[in-house]
Amino acid sequence: MEHRKQNRYLLDAQAHFTWRGEADHQDEGAGHTSDVGVGGVFVRTQGSPPLAAFIHVEVLLPKPRDSARQLFLRGDGRVIRVEPSAPSNPRGGFAAAFSTFMVQDEEGALMEDGFLTLEKHGNKEKVNAA
């Protein structure tokens, strides 16, 4: 049985990610999250970064109710698991563990706590804008 240190939350949101590839070239990709947490994220994508790559991930979060501000989760960390996409596994992607992360609006202002609510969904929780 797998024991996680932090809770994970179901969230299908757009994600953009960058990492340093061969010859120190910056590579990038996009996909959708399946879950997020303080400790990391799983991104479904066709083109995953390599295992152990240092990665920067930006997730477009749901807008809080009654707010015009768009929110982003921005995290840096390492790729800890890669699940290749294949006909038998169309939901391939990668898991990244965050060493740092923050929630900001489009202007880069940090957001205060309490803008998201959580809803239990099986053994995970679902993120809803508050």
| Secondary structure tally: strands | 9
CATH topology: the name is: Thrombin, subunit H
**Regarding CATH, which class?**
Mainly Beta
Which regions contain 5 or more consecutive residues with pLDDT less than 50? Answer: 113-121, 124-130
Note the run of SSEs as H and E.
EEEEEEEEE
Mean pLDDT: 80
Instruction: Describe the largest sheet.
Output: 6 strands, antiparallel, barrel
Approximate shape: globular
Structural class call reads mainly beta
Q: Estimate what percentage of residues fall within beta strands.
A: over 45%
Count of DSSP helices?
0
User: Helix coverage percent of residues?
Assistant: under 10%
Distance between the termini: 33 Å
User: Biggest sheet: strands side by side, in what order?
Assistant: 2-3-4-7-6-5
CATH architectural name: Beta Barrel
Radius of gyration equals 15 Å
How many separate domains?
1
Oligomeric status: single chain
What's the helix and strand layout?
Layout: E1 8-10, E2 14-20, E3 26-37, E4 40-44, E5 54-61, E6 71-83, E7 93-105, E8 116-121, E9 124-129
Short description:
With 130 residues, the chain is mainly β. The chain has strands at 8-10, 14-20, 26-37, 40-44, 54-61, 71-83, 93-105, 116-121, 124-129. The chain has no helices and nine strands.
